[in-house]
Write a structure and sequence with these properties.
Chain lengths: 257, 251
């Protein structure tokens, strides 16, 4: 019992400490974002890195999600004769939920892991110290561009995913199950509100920021050589996943009243 | 002038520095010697404010660098150039971008920065490497690129963490010469760490030995050579027999 309480207490302290440090890092990132010089070139490069390179994986994920949503709806909703709703189900699921969350997970796995590994390597090989000796603030130079570009690229990727997912649903519903193409689009379009799309994109931006700050935090404070870099990378992905899935519930409750 | 007084630093239970006192006059070249793991790199990192002391002061021209706010700290760092033990080159950038990094950051145009970078690379005996990536270089070449990067913005204070380790003897001596030239022509103040006693005698105005977290002896190269201090004697002659025990190795 004593040991259990001790372990619980230590976990709690660790959790509080990490949360505090992440908030502190976030604060520095935001402050450096506002202060000149602005890292425009650097941010652009990171946007490419995060956005463009995640496109293929995000698209494959989205198209298959749309397809499976359509498949499930057609077969499942048939039981109460509502399979004509497939367009609505796919469109609403993609924009409100699947698009942002799955894109977030893809970005966490690709870009988040890369951020942690890159910054972690820079830390253990003293490149971050070297930046400081050259009078460059490492957070400004390394973290701020990653954070801002993730916030902008996530919604961009998500809107692409939403669209491709709906197309995937179309392929299954229309080509496989012979549903009328007009009906699919009508259902998709009529029940979709603009707020579904932009609230989904707000989620996406939040996930992007969360993944970037968590991954950069893990990388920036890496200790212990190559092994430490490995741990930081794994940790970044795991914490990013948890953050996305847990915050998704609360964001949904708050955004989609 | 660099004045270090009562500098203490621990990492957890590991007491690395236990009250270091050391003064380096402006324009002087100080060499710090000491065994592996004795805290030489930790000491040099305190001079440029990469580590904060647990206790004690590090004064750079009268300013305590260990208590500075971010803004002033980054300001004062422009005075410094530092060569890291492992070179610490930015591996996402080409060699010349590494060397010209500080210049590019302070707004110099790419073409001019590249010219300066190539000139500094020539100074450390490198040519035709400017467009290579650091991963394509040998250890000794990386070290020299690190040195070129440290001197690129003409700093007033240079910190060298083992500048000649991993170089062949001839190259090592040309780096020694470069360090001497930096001092004579540019009047830089420097602190160098080395295991290489030959290099220490060549470049030092003064030599200090770090042992068990303190400076045990400090003096001119001649004073060090003729010391009666057993610790220092053992170190400079490189003998396994003496007051310094090598732990874990028995015969
Ligand atoms: N960031 C750090 N965190 C924890 N311990 C550290 C850190 N930096 C150095 N140490 C410890 O401080 C001690 C001194 O290390 P330091 O790198 O200064 O040795 P050194 O004298 O430069 O040795 P070498 O000649 O091998 O380079 C070592 O025991 C090392 O483990
Ligand atoms: Mg060292």
């Amino acid at each position: 019992m004593y040991n259990f309480l001790l372990a619980l207490g230590q976990t709690l302290i660790r959790f509080t400490k990490i949360t505090g440090e992440i908030v502190l890092l976030l604060w520095t990132v935001l402050r450096e974002f506002l202060l000149p010089p602005y890292e425009i070139k650097n941010t652009f490069k990171q946007a490419m890195e995060i956005g463009i390179k995640s496109v293929p994986v995000a698209l494959v994920t989205a198209v298959f999600t749309g397809m499976v949503l359509a498949l499930q709806t057609v077969t499942g909703f048939k039981r109460f004769g509502a399979e004509s709703l497939v367009g609505s189900v796919v469109a609403l699921s993609m924009t409100r939920e699947m698009g942002p969350v799955l894109t977030g997970l893809v970005v966490a796995g690709r870009a988040g892991a890369a951020m942690a590994a890159e910054l972690g390597t820079m830390r253990v090989t003293e490149q971050i110290d070297a930046l400081e000796t050259l009078a460059v603030k490492p957070v400004k130079y390394l973290v701020t561009p990653r954070f801002t570009s993730a916030i902008f690229m996530m919604p961009a990727l998500t809107i692409l995913s939403d669209f491709v997912g709906i197309l995937g649903g179309y392929a299954v519903a229309v080509w496989l199950f012979g549903m009328s193409s007009v009906l699919y689009w009508r259902r998709a379009w009529d029940n979709l509100e603009l707020s579904d799309i932009y609230n989904g994109l707000i989620k996406a931006a939040f996930f992007g920021g969360a993944v970037a700050i968590v991954s950069c935090y893990k990388g920036f404070y890496t200790e212990g050589g190559a092994e430490g870099v490995g741990k930081a990378t794994t940790g970044a992905v795991v914490i990013s996943f948890m953050t996305i899935l847990i915050s998704d519930y609360f964001l949904t409750a708050w955004l989609f009243k | 002038m660099i004045e270090i007084t009562g500098l203490t630093k621990s990492f957890g239970p590991n007491q690395v520095l236990r009250g270091v006192n050391l003064t380096v006059q402006t324009g002087d070249s100080m060499v710090v010697i000491g065994g592996s793991g004795s805290g030489k790199s930790v000491l040099i990192k305190h001079i440029i404010g990469l580590l904060r002391p647990d206790a004690g002061m590090v004064l750079i021209d009268g300013t305590d660098i260990s208590t500075l706010k971010d803004k002033e700290l980054y300001e004062i760092r422009r005075k410094f150039g530092m060569l890291f033990q492992g070179a610490a080159l930015f591996d996402s950038m080409s060699v010349w971008e590494n060397v010209g990094f500080a210049l590019l950051r302070s707004g110099m145009r790419e073409r001019e920065a590249k010219v300066v970078a190539m000139e500094k690379l020539r100074l450390v005996g490198l040519k035709d490497v400017e467009d290579k990536m650091p991963s394509e270089l040998s250890g000794g070449m990386r070290k020299r690129v690190g040195l070129a990067r440290a001197i690129a913005h003409n700093p007033e204070i240079l910190l060298y963490d083992e500048p000649t380790t991993g170089l062949d003897p001839i190259l090592a001596d040309s780096i020694n010469e470069l360090i001497i030239r930096m001092r004579e022509k540019m009047k830089v103040t420097s602190v160098a760490i080395t295991h290489d006693m030959h290099s220490a005698y060549r470049i030092a105005d003064r030599i200090a030995m770090l042992f068990e977290g303190r400076i045990v002896l400090e003096g001119t190269p001649d004073e060090i050579k003729n010391t009666s201090n057993d610790l220092v004697k053992q170190f400079i002659t490189g003998s396994a027999q003496g007051p310094i025990k090598v732990e874990g190795i028995s015969f």
